[in-house]
């Protein structure tokens, strides 16, 4: 099969799902197995499965491009001659009429039983093209970049934020004290750790009650209210009340762990929310880390944006997790690509971030419409949190001006001091 | 580290999460990395991370048991000397106070960022022990085995069901005709395919309107109303209305694709539902198929039951998917194990099922408190659906009597005819 073979016109009533697969079947046969399982087929041909029905409802093979094998282990239970195994990028076209513009029902077709097919030694959903009816049904982000900048009074430049550390265990009083220090230090944004939910040791209501007066006093004094993303992740039936608690206290952001309430849970709270939704991607590794199975970030982030994430975690370069810089930069680019005319979502860079990564990141992404979070990188700066924030902000300002990292370091004492602890600098 | 080393008392305020891991770090060090990341740790020690805080909130290593390596590829981005890599079963104890008995917040701790740790060449959550406060918060299944049997008037024996095939594409009129035939054929249960959601080609409302009068007429005539699981999977905000549509028409079951609305979505509709919830596990392969990453069925099914699944798909032996019989039988056993005093969930066996698998299945599971679904195996029986149902029921009755498969085949013409198409028989 020639690379790109089979591509035909995609209509506004079709979804294209793209997979990385490995199989010992001929690639065109394997593609038909996948298309059949996910639309009109069953394991024996049954009455009423007419040719007309198949013509209207069967998924169609859209494109097949063979790729080199990677040497990865085949998935458990896969069948076929290992010597015949080939890897490919395979796209299927699904009629929208099969499921309508409903995310959960779409997923049954493009990401349902197919991961269990024994004909595949690898099968990973890596991209989705969705037609406009999805944007008619789902409004997407309500705030995005502009709304977030407005609420945090940061009209330009990278938005600099931090994460409450230690993740859990602070009393509300200690939390309030820390938040006061961080606000004083000049951050635009503070977030709860994803581990800080609504447990008995620090209930959300108590955290809100402790934190918001500190931020309000800071705003009265300075004219800027840092955005605090309270983690409202919880049972679906509690999300609205959790959100309302934050709103009532003057909060300007809620954080939702998208995979923990489900994409559908995010969509549910989006219908209710009156502040930006900070979309955390905890558990993403469970579905996306394997090269052989699951759902890649590029496909997943489209659904999270459609479901209404105003901010979405992408990881940052030189992070403490497994992802390469290339993967991270692709994730940031993916979140910034236009999607069905929706308001743009803010990529959130975090994990091991500090000022020394600004120039290398900016060189690749060419924007400051980013929320850059440093936990240890701000709290742990040798000269304290204010110096931590200054080091981040000065580095990003320099990068956005087109300067070199060397220039920034020559000018910025906080950045030089940060490098003593967090170096080396990424040029 | 000795097998089972480190086990200490688990209290009613702790969760134990068990993982399969591979790492090049010493196992005890790797265990501390995992425990730290998922509780009080960050990548630099920060102010306020006191020893007292760690003592109260840090996750603790509970047990480490080294396992043989399997030869599977390490996860992308994992670090360390490959020659040092070891595999282990590792359990951590988490203080319940960190998250409280909230499933989404629990998941942040036991199944959040940890899948992204580069210290791990494999990291899969395989089991969970939950303390009683979870059962105080979540009522679990409302109907389970007994409620399901009552509603379908099948007080004993395996519950025999089928799936609408072709999966999608039937008009409501064709669907009604097929349902009439299947009811006539004597099935206890019929379900929508997971691919049949609420699309424009066959909206749920039209399906309900077409199907329910057929079942009501059948019930008037025979005294038995087969249970029909309408797939109500959709946006969270539409689940209750979808459910109510089914109820209003006299329906006795709704199907929810658990992973597509999220475990949290299932829990949400459970609070509203007045009929059994048929839990489909579409997408489970994305999180559970890899041996190296994700969440195993044994852990996942506990959460699905807690969230209220009255029925839960487990696959069946000799299925058309990748799972071995051993895996399937372990899944069925897992669903049948007691869990926090909850009402028992019905395991749902499907995929390539026919009468010839009854004796081998029964020999392993020793119960008929099962919903056994055959799609092609009933629709595609050489003598029609009634013979298909008879072949299934006669085989399961024989198995439950302790007979051999040979005895059943000698007696049952429908079973012999089924074997011509679906054989060989599993003794």
UniProtKB/TrEMBL annotation, chains A, B:
One of its GO terms (biological process) is carbon fixation. Keywords: Magnesium, Metal-binding. Its cofactor is Mg(2+). It comes from the Bacteria. The keyword NADP does not apply. GO terms for molecular function: magnesium ion binding; ribulose-bisphosphate carboxylase activity. Residues 12-132 form the Ribulose bisphosphate carboxylase large subunit ferrodoxin-like N-terminal domain. Gene3D superfamilies: Ribulose bisphosphate carboxylase, large subunit, C-terminal domain, RuBisCO large subunit, N-terminal domain. Residues 145-422 form the Ribulose bisphosphate carboxylase large subunit C-terminal domain. InterPro entries: RuBisCO, RuBisCo_large_chain_AS, RuBisCO_lsu_C, RuBisCO_lsu_C_sf, RuBisCO_lsu_fd_N, RuBisCO_lsu_N_sf. Pfam families: RuBisCO_large, RuBisCO_large_N. PROSITE patterns: RUBISCO_LARGE. PANTHER family: RIBULOSE BISPHOSPHATE CARBOXYLASE, RIBULOSE BISPHOSPHATE CARBOXYLASE LARGE CHAIN. Belongs to the RuBisCO large chain family. This is Ribulose 1,5-bisphosphate carboxylase.
